[in-house]
Amino acid sequence: MHHFHYQKDELYCEQVPVSEIARNVGTPFYLYSHATLRQHFRAFDGAFSDLKHLTCFSMKSNASLAVLRLFAVEGGGADIVSGGELYRALKAGVDSQKIVYSGVGKSIEELKYALQSNILLFNVESSQEISLLNDVARDLEKKAPIAIRVNPDIDPQTHPYIATGLKESKFGIDINESLKEYARAATLDQLVVSGVSCHLGSQLVRTDPFLDALKKLQGLIKTLKHSGIVLRYLDLGGGLGITYDNEDPPHPKEYADAIQKALDTKDLTLILEPGRVIMGNGGILVTKVLYTKDAREKKFTIVDAGMNDLIRPSLYGSFHGVQPVKTSGRKKIKMDIVGPICESGDFFAKDREVETLEPGELLAIMSSGAYGFSMSSNYNSRPRVAEVMVKGRQYDIIRARETYEDLVKGERIPDFLL
Ligand SMILES: *Cc1c(COP(=O)(O)O)cnc(C)c1O
């Protein structure tokens, strides 16, 4: 469920016409629905209410302060993958004791920052990271709570770029190797061995891979217990998929019920790291038609947003719905919706049936809340777009559109070129 809907012929976000925002903010812009995000968070978090659990929103899907604030107010934590994300999480008021930190390449500075911030859990991903974290913690006279991120070697049946739990993937420590690392970590003075974590990949549309992983993790937890290592946290990662086109992923309730049924103990605190399932359908990208063009083979609609604003179609061949902000009743024709970037990969939709469009009309690229703005760049020296959040009848710009000055901020022409 989301709150982007038509009233008569007009697309609304909650109670605000999208065209009204476009008039005031200009295009392109990302638009998020507060009610949708809150509802998605509550549906997910609420589905686990019978268990000791913590929902850590995966910030790489959307790191806007306003978005983080919304989830923090709802009691959510954050799953971070960099020092920059930690900074944002703290700035937005996320409780540091609800922050978990994953990533294969945490730098020494990042480890220090996270230790000084007293985060809940370091999801460590290599033997060397374990040693380094212990050293850094000693220097700072801190204890570092760790979970080993294990690689359970499970095929999530998703796009190869977003599959992360296969044995050929760079993430985590092989689940069989992890016993050795647990034993070693337990001997290191500054580490508190607290949990186990995994993350299988993204846009999973079935529960089986999660249950297979859970089974393997529970096996590991038991083996560790026998050798005297008792864990408190079981972090199942994120990855639950959404409907972009005609996918039929399990509802969070169904996902939670399946997990709950498969759990063999209620002693552990379950950590979940959802990103896409909460954010994805909570946001759209609003863009304006610049030109239409009839080439020999194709009809192109050229819009003012590009792959630098939303890279998913170019990067993964992902599907995003494309809807007119004002429906015209004109007939639908097949077209490619493309951006202004000088790359053939710069498209949002190919051979898509959309109502005939005229320059100046607005289009909504649907399901763009996750991995939209957060993956955007300044490629082609395009200022990054504005972000807007609607709540009921109100809306606010939660991130200003970048200016040309922003584009050159920090740059310098050296003296030897003057
Ligand atoms: C990306 C990521 C997530 C979130 O994945 P979604 O598919 O957006 O739910 C969670 N945990 C880790 C470690 C990740 O890298």
CATH architecture of the largest domain: Alpha-Beta Barrel
Radius of gyration: 23 Å
Global morphology: globular
CATH superfamily membership of the largest domain? Alanine racemase
Largest sheet: 9 strands, mixed
On the 0 to 100 scale, the average pLDDT is 96
How helix-rich are the residues, as a percent range?
A: 25-40%
- How much β-strand is present in the residues? 25-35%
Residue runs with pLDDT of under 50 for 5 or more positions: none
Distinct small molecules bound, one entry per kind: pyridoxal-5'-phosphate
Briefly note the CATH topology name of the largest domain: TIM Barrel
CATH class of the largest domain: Alpha Beta
Strand pairing plus helix content: what structural class?
alpha/beta
**Number of extended strands:** 21
Task: Quickly count the domains.
Answer: 2
Through-space gap between termini: 58 Å
Question: How many helices in DSSP terms?
Answer: 12
Write the topology of this structure.
Elements: E1 4-7, E2 10-13, E3 16-17, H1 18-25, E4 29-33, H2 34-47, E5 53-58, H3 65-73, E6 77-80, H4 83-91, E7 99-101, H5 108-116, E8 121-124, H6 127-139, E9 144-151, E10 173-174, H7 178-186, E11 191-197, H8 208-226, E12 233-235, H9 252-262, E13 269-272, H10 276-279, E14 283-294, E15 299-303, H11 312-316, E16 322-324, E17 332-338, E18 347-355, E19 362-365, E20 386-391, E21 394-399, H12 404-408
Parallel strand pairs: 4-20, 5-6, 5-13, 6-7, 7-8, 8-9, 9-10, 9-11, 11-12, 12-13, 15-17
Antiparallel strand pairs: 1-2, 2-3, 4-14, 14-15, 14-19, 16-19, 17-18, 20-21
Helix pairs in contact: 2-9, 5-6
This protein binds pyridoxal-5'-phosphate.
Pyridoxal-5'-phosphate is lined by residues 58, 60-61, 79, 102, 199, 202, 237-240, 273-277, 370.
